[in-house]
Design brief:
Oligomer: single chain
Order of helices and strands: H
Number of strands: 0
Structural class: mainly alpha
Helix content: over 70%
Largest sheet: none
Shape: rod-shaped
Distance between the termini: 125 Å
Length: about 100
């Protein structure tokens, strides 16, 4: 009987130890997930700030390039006759 009781006590201690370890694992996983989420939030914030700075710097450059392109297009359009006009036109009236 003593041997059986000793085995039951060992079994009970092992179950308790296993339960305690499982709880510890779950706590540590939750803490790790929180740290990872916080780290990802920080990385996301830094990336957004980098993009904002980049847009702030490049926005005037893009606007200037677009304005120059528009200016060039307008000048070219003013200097060239409209397509389909003049002697080289393939359209002829039947009259």
């Amino acid at each position: 009987m003593d041997r059986r009781r000793a085995l039951q006590e060992v079994e009970e201690r092992l179950r308790k130890r296993e339960h305690d370890l499982q709880e510890q694992i779950e706590r540590e996983q939750a803490e790790a997930m929180q740290r990872i989420a916080a780290g990802l939030g920080e990385v996301e914030h830094r990336q957004v700030e980098t993009v904002r700075r980049s847009v702030t710097v490049s926005d005037p450059l893009v606007a200037e390039a677009a304005a120059q392109s528009f200016d060039t297009t307008i000048r070219t359009a003013r200097e060239e006759p409209p397509a389909g006009c003049g002697e080289s036109s393939t359209f002829r009236s039947n009259g």
